[in-house]
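note to self: the first set is below, dont mix up w the second
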Amino acid sequence: MAADHPDKTYVLFDGLVAMPKGANKNVNSIAYRQNEASYLAGMLAAGLIRTAPFRRTVEQRWDFLGGMDIPLINDYLVGYVEGARAINRGIKIAVSYQAHFRTPPG
């Protein structure tokens, strides 16, 4: 599509586009490591539960539900856990997997 519309600018999120011989100059790619983004998400979540109105005074136990037990999801999980533990070393996280990425009917 980018080649058909050279006057437009495109952003490919979570991927890279080939640029052979100067092709696709109107496409910008955003690539990141899952564990880096999820580290920040874990820090944010743990920080939120330390402040009102989310404050928790009881022992913190979280659950993580992954779509599938695959390297990509596990990489995300590692970053999330480490980010949360950067804010609260005592946090406990139970991990389980759904075994698919399908949306439930309804």
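second set (the one i keep forgetting abt)
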Amino acid sequence: MKPDWDKLSADYAEHPSVVIADVDCTTDGGKPVCEEYEVKGYPTIKYFTDETDEKGDAYQGARSLSALQDFVKDKLETKCLVDDPEACDEKEVAYIAKMQAKDAAAIVKEITRLEGISSTGKMAPDKKIWMLKRMAILKQL
């Protein structure tokens, strides 16, 4: 499974709304993370969306690369498109309108600001999701 996971991670390395990561629960750095997110067996795959609680949900599907890719496309990728906002929620539509009214320099400034916030570490799950949604929108403008 590890080679498929690494390939999936590489495929989404630059994606604005999907983060594929792994944690080694046997290391000093990984143990606290695994304890916090209640990982008890290995390998465990957890995912986080608007619908999951802050500890995420355990992925129960097949573990082939194609199954993992399908899951990410169906459940985790951003569906809100600036050019076709039908799948966007009200907050996203309002943000699109707000940012479309700004010039390119303001958009770059906002991307830089959000990237700075994201690099500071911990953030409430709902705030992180909203930040990722904004980043996804900004990268489409």
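remember for set 2: DSSP finds six helices and two strands in the chain.
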